[in-house]
Design brief:
The complex is a heterotrimer of chains A (253), B (178) and C (351). Chain A has helices spanning 31-45, 79-89, 101-107, 109-117, 158-161, 167-172, 188-206, 221-224, 228-242; strands spanning 51-55, 70-73, 94-100, 123-128, 131-132, 138-139, 179-184, 212-217, 246-250. Chain A is α/β, with parallel strands linked by helices and 253 residues long. Chain A has a single domain, classed as Rossmann fold, CATH 3.40.50. In chain A, helix 2 (79-89) runs parallel beside helix 4. The longest helix of chain A has 19 residues, at 188-206. Chain B has a single domain, classed as Pyruvate-ferredoxin Oxidoreductase, domain 3, CATH 3.40.920. In chain B, strand 4 (69-72), helix 2 (75-81) and strand 5 (90-94) form a beta-alpha-beta unit. In chain B, helix 1 crosses helix 5 and helix 3 packs across helix 4 (127-139). Chain B is globular, with a radius of gyration of 15 Å. The relative contact order of chain B is 0.17. Chain C is 41% helix and 19% strand. Chain C contains 13 helices and 15 strands. Chain C has helices at residues 9-19, 34-43, 57-69, 80-85, 87-95, 122-127, 144-161, 171-175, 216-237, 256-271, 289-296, 312-320, 339-348; strands at residues 4-8, 24-27, 50-53, 74-78, 100-106, 137-139, 164-170, 177-181, 208-209, 240-243, 250-253, 276-281, 283-285, 301-306, 328-330. Classes of the chains: A alpha/beta (253), B alpha/beta (178), C alpha/beta (351).
Chain lengths: 253, 178, 351
């Protein structure tokens, strides 16, 4: 029977600024949700025609494929420095740097901290899944105490490997950043919170307010050796203990 | 004609600036010039020197292993550079600090007691200009008036215009001392 | 043209970059190129342009990558150890077909080395210090005025071919002063627009800048595009100077400050009756192989002189290819060669 669409209201759709390219992510991985949220924020703020996204090295290396926006691929850890160059060269651009935990909080430590400390008017999305996904599940700077990875086969022993680094808290100690927050995507409520946070972070940039950082706790069912549902539960029950959710700094209001 | 001079002394004796002024004056006088400093940690208190080449032709080597002239503001500089000076070259030396005489007999020495003259000009800091004045008279490489002009412009550009009269006086006293 | 001014090599490179329309400059302090950074710090903000003192050389080269991707003329500078840190970024800039200018005011190495003038980075600059099959145009100024001219040329060549261009000079050239007359400034707004740049996908498909593809066949094609460009550069951009080579029996091959020191040696040697000439590559990549080969067939000796253990020497031997004897004389570690030392080497081959 044909469906009558006459009195229907569209409540959900594909964001305009999302391309038709198929995601390269594993089932249950949160990168896809996050990508969609960012595209939605770009739509709502009407900035697709002046946005440049920065793809990092790691699972999200293909991030330049997902948005109908200009994009550049940065070397491992350097996305915040590349963002600095782009934004300083053309302040009308909206620059969104998308970086994983190894990229942002390990190899790119210096670039990450100093872009934040200079108060570059950029938005950094920092995806924290506590593991190096693309290279095969090695320890990340954010890997939890006791967590097994291919390079901590007996679990992360802090006496030997140190502790998971709370990078957003570190950034939050600086004077320049306008907005630093940690979000998650394990259920509808968190997704809606994350949507708001990302839109706020990008709108601060549009308004010229300065640097914002949105850390997003994400899953890696493949390398965590969990089902997507188990992975979601793991974030909700375990990961958020080590990485509490919420705003750390909001000087934009 | 090509002249090359090494101006050397302790850091703080103003040898780098004296060389710059000479190079600027040489350029103003229509010569080709290069100015090459020693640089690095020795800038802060150790020994310092610079090499100025003045020529009617484009300058080849800015580094000189046989300078036609030497301005030695202290003993270590004289010890180091005296043997390098070309035969019949000119050595201006700071008699206030260097007690020994030259070992070379095939060069033209000018012994100048720079400190009292600098004091007479207004400050012991003007010893570099006294020595430069003496060097100008000894060699005639650039006219005194051109050097005065270059010095005044460089000090004014550096926001130190008030020291111009003192340094002019020091250049003159050095010039007359030879 | 502007007025004739006595200027330091480092300042001339900075000022020439500004006049070439450089809109963004990123760097980290290091001796002996600090005056370059300081000149930019004083002047870029005054002109409404970007100066960022980066957190590191790695930060600086990646800011350069970003600014170049945005389509503006941009530059970074450093000295040997700092240039080592920039290699990853240079590889990315080359692989992404971006125009950018990188200045290396060389000092003694390897490792921390010292701060005295040296030419030990020739291999790194001309053979690729970073990973992958890329090339970079390398310009070796010999005098302070030429440092200015080549800086302006560097921006033009970078834009023309969308490649990184390096100014390879040494600490002596950076520190010394010479009279210079710089051309009038270019207004960046009048430079040709770059339709590939990241300016926002308004009324066009998105522009994507990358050096990446997981499909080897596609990456091979991307490499072939680079190689084709490099052949074109080799065919069109090799530059060199010959000095008193017409009747020469012996020719010194040298670049940068060593070449100008060698000019003094040529004059002195000729005063002694030695028919000495000088071959000076101005582009170190592309190296002027053909002109040197042609010259080598007319002389007995091509003596390479460098402030290194013999790096350009390899290119000289490739060019000469046994047409003449190819001895070498070099200094290392920041020890500067002098006319006397070079002349005594020349005398060995004069009889």
């Amino acid at each position: 029977m044909p469906v009558n669409t006459e009195n229907m209201v569209k409540v959900f759709g594909r964001p305009e600024s999302l391309t038709d390219a198929r995601f390269t992510y594993c089932p249950g991985c949160h990168h896809g949700i996050l990508t969609r949220i960012i595209a939605k924020a770009i739509d709502e703020l009407g900035i697709a025609e002046r946005t440049v996204t920065i793809a990092p090295v790691g699972c999200s290396v293909f991030a330049y494929l997902w948005y109908k926006c200009d994009a550049v691929q940065a070397s491992h850890g350097r996305a915040s420095a590349v963002a600095t160059g782009l934004k300083r060269a053309n302040k009308d651009l909206i620059v969104i740097s998308y970086q994983g935990d190894g990229d942002f909080a390990s190899i790119g430590t210096a670039e990450s901290i100093h872009a934040a400390n200079r108060g570059e008017n950029i938005t950094v999305i920092f995806v924290n899944n506590q593991i190096y996904g693309m290279t095969g599940g090695e320890m990340a700077p954010t890997t939890l105490v006791g967590q097994r990875t291919t390079t901590t086969p007996d679990g992360r022993d802090p006496a030997y490997f140190g502790y998971p680094i709370r990078f957003s808290e570190l950034i939050a100690t600086l004077d320049a950043p306008v907005y630093v927050t940690r979000q998650a995507l394990y259920d509808t409520r968190r997704i809606m919170d994350a949507e708001k946070a990302i839109k706020k972070a990008i709108s601060y940039q549009v308004e010229g307010k300065g640097y914002s950082l949105v850390e997003v706790l994400s899953t890696c069912p493949t390398n965590w050796h969990m089902s997507p549902l188990e992975a979601n539960r793991h974030v909700a029950e375990v990961v958020t203990e080590a990485f509490p959710l919420g705003d750390l700094v909001d000087r934009g209001g | 004609m090509e002249r090359s001079v090494i101006i050397a002394g302790f850091g703080g004796q103003g040898v780098i600036l004296a060389g710059k002024i000479l190079a600027q004056a040489g350029m103003d006088h229509g010569l080709e010039v290069t100015w090459l400093p020693s640089y690095g940690p020795e800038m802060r208190g150790g020994t310092a020197n610079c090499t100025v080449v003045l020529s009617e032709e484009p300058v080849g080597s800015p580094i000189v292993d046989e300078p036609t002239d030497l301005v030695a503001m202290n003993l270590p500089s004289l010890d180091k550079f005296e043997p390098m000076v070309a035969r019949d070259g000119t050595i201006v030396m700071n008699r206030s600090l260097i007690e020994r005489d030259l070992e070379r007999t095939d060069v033209r020495p000018y012994l100048v007691d720079v400190h009292p003259l600098a004091e007479e000009a207004g400050s012991s800091r003007a010893i570099n200009m006294v020595a430069l004045g003496a060097y100008l008279k000894a060699t005639g490489v650039v006219p005194l008036e051109v050097v005065k002009g270059a010095m005044a412009r460089m000090l004014e550009e550096g926001g130190k215009g008030k020291f111009v009269p003192m340094n002019e006086k020091a250049l003159e006293l050095g010039y007359e001392a030879v | 043209m502007g007025e004739r001014k006595l200027m330091r090599g480092n300042e001339v490179i900075a000022e020439a970059a500004i006049r070439a329309g450089c809109e963004c400059y990123f760097a980290y302090p290091i001796t002996p190129q600090a005056e370059l950074l300081e000149h930019m710090a004083r002047n870029m903000p005054r002109l409404g342009r970007t100066f960022v003192q980066a957190e590191s050389e790695i930060g600086a080269i990646n800011m350069l990558y970003g600014a170049a991707a945005a389509g503006v003329r941009a530059m970074t500078s450093s000295s040997s150890p700092g240039i080592s840190l920039k290699q990853e970024g240079i590889s990315y800039i080359a692989g992404s077909n971006l125009p950018a200018v990188i200045v290396n005011i060389m000092r003694g190495g390897p490792g921390l080395g010292d701060i005295a003038p040296a030419q030990g980075d020739y291999f790194q600059a001309t053979k690729g210090g970073g990973h992958g099959d890329y090339r970079m145009i390398v310009l070796g100024p010999s005098t302070v005025p030429e440092a200015g001219e080549l800086t302006i040329l560097a921006f033009d060549l970078a834009d023309k071919y969308r490649v990184p261009v390096m100014i390879l000079a040494d600490g002596m050239l950076g520190q010394m002063m010479e009279p210079v007359e710089l051309p009038d400034p270019v207004d960046p707004a009048t430079l040709p627009k770059k339709d590939w740049a990241l300016t926002g996908a308004k009324g066009r498909d998105p522009n994507i800048i990358l050096s990446f593809d997981l499909d080897p066949e596609v990456l091979k094609q991307m490499n072939l595009v680079l190689q084709e460009k490099y052949r074109k550069i080799e065919d069109n951009e090799a530059r060199y100077e010959e000095y008193q080579t017409d009747d020469a029996d012996i020719v010194i091959a040298a670049y940068g400050t060593v070449a100008r020191i060698a000019k003094t040696v040529v004059r002195r040697a000729r005063a002694e009756g030695i028919k000495l000439g000088l071959f000076r590559p101005i582009t170190l990549w592309p190296f002027p192989y053909e002109p040197l080969r042609e010259l080598a067939s007319r002389v007995k000796t091509v003596l390479t002189v460098e402030m290194s253990a013999g790096q350009m020497w390899e290119d000289v031997r490739l060019a000469v290819a046994e047409r003449a004897e190819t001895p070498f004389y070099g200094e290392m570690g920041g020890v500067v060669t002098t006319p006397k030392k070079i002349l005594s080497e020349v005398r060995k081959y004069a009889r």
